[in-house]
Amino acid sequence: MSQANQKQAEHRLPSPVANPENKAFLEAAQKDELLLKHCNSCKESHYYPRTICPHCGSDDTTWIKSAGVGEIYSYTVMRRGVEVPFAMAYVKLQEGISMLTHLTNCDFDSIRVGQKVRVVFQETQDGQKTHLFEPV
Amino acid sequence: MSFAANKYDACIAGIYEHPLRVAPDHTVAQLHAEVAQGALQDAGLTLDDVDGYFCAGDAPGMGPVSMVDYLGLKKLRYLDSTDTGGSSYLTHVNHAARAIAAGQCKVALITLAGRPKSEGSSGTQVRSQWASAPDFAFEKPYSPAPLNTYAMCAMRHMYEFGTTSEQLAWIKVAASHHAQHNPNAALKDVLTVDDVLNSPMIADPLHRADCCVVTDSGGALVVVHPDIAKSLKKPVVTMMGAGETTKGQMGGKVDLTYSGLAWAAPLAFKEAKLTPEQIRYASIYDSFTITVLIQLEDLGFCKKGEGGKFVEGGQLISGKGKLAFNTDGGGLCNNHPANRGGMTKVIEAVRQLRGEAHPAVQVPNLEFALASGIGGALGTRHGASVLIMGRLQ
């Protein structure tokens, strides 16, 4: 395990910002569930979640539970200018949409685009849980 | 309304770039005023001639409400505070030109200034102005900053197209070749590809030398009606075409390999009735080396995925390569005032069209120039704007 990865465990995540549109999303994360928004009109899911579907404009959207698996679309390891290095990524979910996240439980030097990952939940600075991904 | 129907509908008559790169003893409003005075003087006009004013989020206080009062502008008929980050000022030129063509004002002043260097800003920090973005509610735990979000674009471009760190480095090398001739440039050392690759890795795959400079400074532009331009002493630079848009994460259908210029550039070229092959000088927004590479593809200078091959071997060095870019040293080496590089992109394009660039980097007999801007963050959400200008014969 690299030095960068040792330090990653010490990285303290800022907490998400609560608002009326992400209340269900944040509450689900406390129960280790990843929610997405799905549109009943165009049958597509979207991220970030919002009331009105960004693909077709319908307000007939519902929360669905994501399988929480996907692959790394792109990533970077932030090595300088921050207290503790961290690995940021876009993960493309099995449901076909990508989300911004961090990668954890991995050697930062061995991360690869296309790598299979699954969701895990980690506490932020004030004890709320939020989603991260780890290699399968 | 199209300017291409009559190339003489609006002209850039005044430019000014503040010479300071560190300005701890200035206020932001004072810097705005100094660049306003400089650009108006360059045009042979005064604050009393201004009847249109444009500024963006770098302006202190309540944007134009504060700055118009500070500057003492008394004849205003037209205001615009469109804010698309660093691309704002290209968009302002577009809006000013169309307002002039529509008869809504005759002398438009556009200003930018800021003090990020003195205030300790860095590309590794999360930008406070992103905090109220609806998507940021979902992103805050992950600390998206300019550097890491652009780095993910570079990583994906390398994965899909085989682009290399060496190819990205050639962009910085070319900028440094130009900056050596600019006495005001923040970085004047000529770099090699190895110098770039040996600089510390900040956010994989971007090295420190892949990044632009952080500078205090500012710049201003004066866009005027052709009747006024004809009476001034400077060579007349005309607006020929423009395009602007924004791009985000498209509901999760993220594709980091292209920018909003993929839509905006064809609009500008169509309006200008030109093709990329006719452009010999381009000011390409250069917050990071990857920003330049992706825009070169989206602007049509090469095919998607072939930006790496396009830039290697010094092809962006004026007098040597096939496309001269950022002959002032650009944001990568000269100046990226207020963390917003669009203003200086337009200024150097106008210098080139006037024949006022440094002789070592001046493109001879230049007829057309392009300036492009990416504002915000390429990897999450950004504004994209492009201008095509011409020299009136």
3D architecture notes:
The complex is a heterodimer of chains A (136) and B (393). With 136 residues, chain A is mainly β. Chain A is 10% helix and 38% strand. The longest helix of chain A is centred in the N-terminal third of the chain and has 7 residues. Chain A starts with a helix and ends with a strand. The N terminus of chain A is likely disordered. By secondary structure, chain B is an alpha/beta fold. Helices cover 33% and strands 18% of the residues of chain B. Chain B has 13 helices and twelve strands. At the A-B interface, β2, β4, β5 and β6 of A face α4, α5 and β5 of B.
Using the CA coordinates, give the radius of gyration of chain A: 16 Å
Distance between the termini of chain B: 23 Å
Q: How much is the average pLDDT of chain A?
A: 92
Given the structure, what is the number of helices of chain B?
13
Mean pLDDT of chain B: 95
How many distinct beta strands of chain A?
A: 8
Spatial shape of chain B: globular
Strand line-up in the sheet with most strands of chain B? 3-2-4-7-1-8-12-11-9-10
Beta-strand percent range of chain A: 35-45%
Shape of chain A: globular
Oligomer: heterodimer
Low confidence ranges of chain A: 1-9
Instruction: Provide the low-confidence segments of chain B as ranges.
Output: none
Assign the structural class of chain B, choosing from mainly alpha, mainly beta, alpha/beta, alpha+beta, or little secondary structure: alpha/beta
The largest sheet of chain A is: 5 strands, antiparallel
Order of helices and strands of chain A: HHEEEEEEEE
Order of helices and strands of chain B: EHEHEHEHHHHEEEHEHEHHEHHEE
Number of helices of chain A: 2
